[in-house]
Amino acid sequence: MVWSAEVADECEIVPTLLARIPRPLGRSILFNGKPISPMAKVVVATWFPRTYLNLFETYSALDKVNLQLDEKKYSTRGVSFVIKGYKGYPDIRFTQRWHGLHYFTVELPDDGIGAKAEAFMKEMQNLLLEKILRVCHTVTYRNIVSDYMPLDFDIVVLTNGFVDTTGYTVKEAAGLTVAFKPEDSYYGGTITYIMGTEDLDSVKMVVRFYSFTQIAFDFLNNMMKALIRLFHNADALIADIESAKDEKELMEAIKALEATVEECSSRRGKMKHVLLNLKLREEELARYPFSQKENALVEALGVVEWFKHLEADGSYMEILWGDIMESKLRNIQSKLDVRLGLRKPDNKKGWF
Predict the structure, then answer these.
(1) Of 4, 11, 6, whose CA–CA distance to 34 is shortest?
(2) What CA–CA distance (Å, rounded) separates 158 from 38?
């Protein structure tokens, strides 16, 4: 008899027996003399800045979401529900927190869990965007599909099974083993393993803080790439304005300038919200009453250090998206004013 979620529904004694059987790392469990695949808990998370109001927006629109939902819950701290029967997966629990962390949790067979976790992440990325945000948060949906706001994901796997940790940094933490790649912090979709437990409840706050930092790094990295692109666009716009031979070419440059200013304004607003969100999360981390086991995991994963790095990166991005970008765009405006013959000592016309 091979245990599965379907069998468990018909035979409650099986999961009860499994809970009593210790699960040595790297071994299958035997039931009735046959191997049973250990199960791993997979947490796929994304983050973008939200507020308490956004929680109610999500909850109030759930009846319009084209998914089979159960156990819908709302509080001022978060929204959660269970997604049933989605593409052959067992029950998937979705949670949205007030600060913008959205995460999906599912239990999957341990064998080949890395590939399964990555496949699950891709499915959840599409589900969140097309099934939830498209219905519950239409403006956010448009910002993401237009690439004004990145949508990056992080994966944490909790397992009692064997994991090949070649190329990973491995640390021990109060009876648990964690494996991660710190050099991949600025890239989305990487996997962090917590080995020695499948009990998410015992470490969920650490997982939340950790995933938050990893996705925030991805967010800032993408915003940096956008900044570099916009700077190059600005240089090209100056050249186009100065070389415009007629009104048509000048109007094309003006149209491009308007699009650039609109994107800069949108992204700059996002950055302000991001930096406020980072500050609030860091304050929450400092006062959270972690247990001894949780503190060991926080230290092993370097959560406090990641927040310090985010603080430094955020301060740098604030300067880039503030005075430096504004100065660049004012320079374009100045060039345009000269071409249009609008340059006056007290001229107030323009985008800035």
Answers:
(1) 4
(2) 11
Q: What is the DSSP string of 182-205?
A: GGGTTSTT-EEEEES---GGGTHH
- pLDDT 10s digits, 123-153: 999 999 999 999 999 999 998 998 888 888 9
Q: Which domains does the chain have, with CATH numbers?
A: 5-215 (no CATH), 216-340 (1.20.58)
95 forms bridges with which residues in the sheet? 80, 103
153's tokens: 């994901």
Q: What percent of the chain has pLDDT over 70?
A: 85
Cα–Cα distance measured from residue 124 to residue 126, given in angstroms and rounded to the nearest whole number:
5
DSSP secondary structure letter of residue 64 = G
Kindly calculate the radius of gyration of the chain based on its CA atoms and give it in whole angstroms: 25
Say how many C-beta atoms besides its own lie within 10 A of residue 221's C-beta. 17
The rounded distance, in Å, linking the Cα atoms of 122 and 299 is 29
